[in-house]
Design a protein that fits this description.
Elements: E1 7-9, H1 12-20, E2 27-29, E3 47-49, H2 57-69, E4 75-77, H3 79-85, E5 89-93, H4 103-113, E6 119-123, H5 128-141, H6 145-166, E7 173-179, E8 184-185, H7 190-196, E9 200-201, H8 215-219, E10 225-228, H9 235-239, H10 242-248, E11 256-260, H11 273-284, H12 290-295, E12 300-302
Parallel strand pairs: 1-2, 1-5, 5-6, 7-9, 7-10, 10-11
Antiparallel strand pairs: 3-4, 7-8, 11-12
């Protein structure tokens, strides 16, 4: 029997994990960036950002660097709303201070609540296996360990099936781009996804943080496929920066270049990482994965 509890999720991927485990009704708080699944906007917002909407990826990068240089956190917790939510479990992360509230701030907030019975589940995914382990750990923490094991088994099988379909059909050289200005190359679990999709990842190895490459280092690459999926940017938002992207990418590249939704996919280490792999497979081997191209037609497009 599943014991109901009060859950606060402070990052979008954690919210997706909690909901995939069947605990949507137990969510009493979320981050301001949590936007999936549908209806999640009804859950109380517990965080906010110090940086408001900005017109370009370059302006966002500059603002983030300025905040961090001043030793300030990019995100804040609303302590009063957290107190009102009365969570039994808080799911957070310590992987990236640019992605969500820091673990130290979460611990400080819980300490100010003067409660000793709040469990903090800290996620730190670096590779694909870490994502599966985080799903299991959240499942254990919220009393859904059996559901978690079944979910992970299902996701693993879907990933393996894509890898089998990709097979040995040639391994085009693939660059994934995580930010436009400056150009950052996808790291962490992205090289594994590229390999599973039937490609050869350039620049990064599994588990490495996203490096920033200048024009000369980019020019030294010779990719066959480029997938641009800026962290936090929807596809329409990415399309707004096509001119900037053209300026940043080497003219000598003759790669097939795709733009994809980097907000919903790729940069969220949760259940939809498998959908991210489906999109990537359709970019790397479109002739092999026309079904995925059709399924995700609204989430990626070729750069014309």
């Amino acid at each position: 029997m599943v014991t109901a509890m009060r859950i606060a999720s402070l990052l979008p991927s954690a919210t997706e994990i909690v909901c995939a485990l069947g605990a949507r009704a137990e969510l009493v708080g979320r981050s301001h960036e949590c936007d999936f699944p549908e209806g999640i906007e009804e859950v109380a917002v517990l965080t906010s950002a110090r940086i408001g909407p900005l017109p370009s990826s370059e302006a966002i990068d500059r603002a983030v660097r300025n905040v961090l240089a001043d030793a300030l956190a990019i995100y804040q917790i609303d302590l009063e709303r957290l107190r009102q939510a009365r969570p039994d479990v808080i799911v957070t992360q310590d992987l990236c201070d640019v992605c969500a509230v820091s673990l130290d701030d979460v611990r400080a907030a819980v300490a100010r609540l003067a409660r000793q019975d709040v469990a903090i589940v800290n996620l730190h995914p670096m590779r694909l296996e870490d994502i599966w382990n985080d799903l299991l750990r959240v499942g254990d923490a919220i009393g859904r360990d059996g559901i978690g094991r079944r979910l992970v088994a299902e996701l693993r099988e879907r990933v393996a099936a894509i890898g089998r379909r990709a097979g040995e059909r040639g391994k085009p050289r693939v660059v994934t781009i995580e930010w436009i200005a400056p150009v950052m190359i996808g790291g962490m679990w992205m090289p594994e996804l590229v390999s599973l999709a039937g490609g050869t990842p350039l620049v990064t190895e599994p588990g490495q943080h996203a490096p920033t490459l200048d024009a000369s280092r980019l020019a030294a690459l010779d990719p066959d496929v480029v997938v641009v999926k800026p962290c936090g940017f929807s596809l329409p938002r990415t399309l707004e920066e096509v001119d900037v992207l053209r300026e940043r990418l080497p003219r000598a590249w003759h790669a097939r270049t795709w733009l994809a939704d980097g907000n919903a996919y790729f940069n969220r280490p949760g259940p939809r990482i498998v959908e991210s792999l489906e999109i990537l497979a359709a970019c790397v081997h479109p002739e092999t994965f026309p079904d995925f191209a059709e399924k995700h037609a609204a989430s990626f497009t070729a750069l014309r």
